[in-house]
């Protein structure tokens, strides 16, 4: 899923905000999958 999402983003015109949103989303999913809990 992550690879496809990156492919779809980087094969079209996009801005830095979209890259940041993708990074944040994939990081959150990875942390949840590994059982990490957000601080706060």
Describe the structure.
The chain is mostly helical and 40 residues long. It is built from two helices and no strands. It has helices at residues 2-10, 16-34. The longest helix is centred in the middle third of the chain and has 19 residues, at 16-34.
Instruction: Give the percentage of residues in beta strands.
Output: under 5%
Helical proportion? over 70%
Pairing-aware structural class of the strands and helices? mainly alpha
Shape category: elongated
| Main β sheet profile | none
Average of pLDDT: 89
Order of helices and strands: HH
Give the tally of β-strands. Answer: 0
Low-confidence sequence ranges = none
Question: What is the terminal-to-terminal distance?
Answer: 28 Å
Number of helices: 2
C-alpha Rg (nearest Å): 12 Å
